[in-house]
Amino acid sequence: xxxxxxxxxxxxxxxxxxxxxxxxxxxxxxxxxxxxxxxxxxxxxxxxxxxxxxxxxxxxxxxxxxxxxxxxxxxxxxxxxxxxxxxxxxxxxxxxxxxxxxxxxxxxxxxxxxxxxxxxxxxxxxxxxxxxxxxxxxxxxxxxxxxxxxxxxxxxxxxxxxxxxxxxxxxxxxxxxxxxxx
Length: 182
Known about the structure:
Layout: E1 3-8, H1 14-26, E2 30-35, E3 40-42, E4 48-50, E5 53-54, E6 65-68, H2 72-79, H3 82-93, E7 97-101, H4 105-110, E8 117-118, E9 132-133, E10 139-142, E11 145-148, H5 154-177
Parallel strand pairs: 1-2, 1-6, 2-5, 6-7, 7-11, 8-9
Antiparallel strand pairs: 3-4, 10-11
Helix pairs in contact: 1-5
């Protein structure tokens, strides 16, 4: 079974984080909620979450993908955390998937791994170091890096992550079960 670490930091965008974890689990992926620096995390809209572990408990070798939900405050917290930047770099160096939505591609730029095409929340591209911004796609994959625009594209993004990890058949089963229409 594929394993994914989804990072929740104080101020993250709840709809993105929850959609990603839910859809991945529906797709047969073992998705762990990883608190940036503590177990209870408060999202951008005041929703509280108890995480499975913290970043300091994460064993990179056990995971196939790292996912960063957006939310500007959450991304600021992620970008400012040295351990998180090192973790992003390690996932990338090992050729593992690194996925980011909304403002989170900023953190990929701060970690100096952004290259190729990407998308993000409109206006955040001015803060992303590296890569080439694409505005006309909801989800963009460039090598091992997968990006998406924001809250309204979270379900589509999560489904693409399922496809990358578990293939077209599982993707279609989950998509149809969710009544997702694109």
